[in-house]
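Table 4 source record.
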Amino acid sequence: MKKSLYTNLQVLFITLICLSVNTAFAQMAIVQSTDGYSNLRSAGSTNAKIISPLQNNIVVLVDELYAEEHPNDKWLKVYVGSDPYCLSCSSDLSKHKTGFIHESQLRFIKDLKKAASSDIKMIYTISPFKATGKQIKYVDNQKTVIASINGKSYFGADCGIPKTEIQKVEATVRGKKFNVPLDYIWSIIHAQNNFQYFQNGNNFFAIQSLGDGACYTEVVWVFDAKGLKQRMLGWSY
């Protein structure tokens, strides 16, 4: 009985540690400025070089580890995809653009208004994973850790070989249906239908968490009336 209780407490402790890790290092946020955009800068200063302007409702990944290490700094270190759909992104974030944005120009997605279920819905068609027919590169000779699938960095490497794969992605936004290209799926082929939906004006955000612990990743799909605007991949560690 005591051994069972001790084991259960161990499991609870490890679970709490994993949850704290998942939320402590990064959060997804959107740009929200009265100017309609905010500049991504090379350092935390209005005098620093502008890397690129980011329009309102663009999703960025806030490095909260940096924020914890610089508690008095009002400038946040952020990451954003080098392209709107993060197709060149890698799980170590080395291919993301990185820079600084003042905290007043950002709003965390989970603080946004929850979207009505009638306004947005995403559905993955899922089947068992098959390696055949895919160009897969492995990290190890034993082929137990995937580096990339069809040329896209795999964001679930530390979770091992995926058990399932996405065959099709459909999104419905205010009654209008959109299909999402499979090129946007290879990095997160192991994802499930565990979405949370948020709204900011006419922009809708479908956010989901993949994996846990060492292979935790967040994905955000951004839609407006015209369709998919952005796909952002978060921290994988």
